[in-house]
Every structure is written in structure tokens, then in C-alpha cells.
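Please annotate the following for my students:
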Amino acid sequence: MKVLSADDSVMIRKVIKNAVAVLGFEFLEAKDGQEALDVMEKEYADVGLVLLDWNMPRLNGLEVLKKLQADERFKAIPVMMVTTEIERAKVLQALAAGAKNYVMKPFSHEDLIAKIMQSIGMGV
């Protein structure tokens, strides 16, 4: 299984990559929302989880989430928001748009791994 992380922060992508490696999954990355959609076009058959930052150039995470949910090929792939957006309204907006989980930055390595497992149906 592959996990796609879309975040404009190289450091956050590295942290997520390490967590994904611990779980034994393959890691894909994108530096913005449009690149995330481009990666999905090529890799979606093997992607089992998408992690999206909210604030990214070109397309933000919510826009990407909505596009993924609107496409039959991507609709069943779980999406988890990984973001600094902590406003309750934004959390609810992302969940209403189809996000399976929501992780607020900063997060611990353990919390991230637990949320990833929950998002793919392997956690509590």
C-alpha cells in the first residue's frame, strides 16, 4: 500500500515519511494540491491513504479533498487532514467534505501513527 502526503513543508513530509516507513508502507509526496492530484492520476490504484495539509499553494487541502471525493476512482480512498487549522468550523467542514480523520500540527510521532492506522481501519 502507498500513502500520499501533500504538504508544502518539506520537514512535515519527512516526519510523515518516517511514520509511514515504520508502518511498512510506501511513501508518495506532493508539495502542493495540484501535484497531489497529478500523483493520484498515476498512482491511485495503489494508494490506500491520502494525507492533506489545508494551506498549500495552487490548490488547498479542502479543494483537493473535494476533487478526490467527486471522482469515482478516488472516492473510496481515505483522506486524513494534517494541518494547523484548528478552528472547529474548519474541522467540521473537512469531515463533512469526506475526510476520515483530522490531525492538528504539531503532532507526536505516536499520534500520527495511531491516526494513520485509524484512517485505514486498522486502529482503535
About this structure: The chain has a mean pLDDT of 95. The first helix runs from residue 10 to 22.
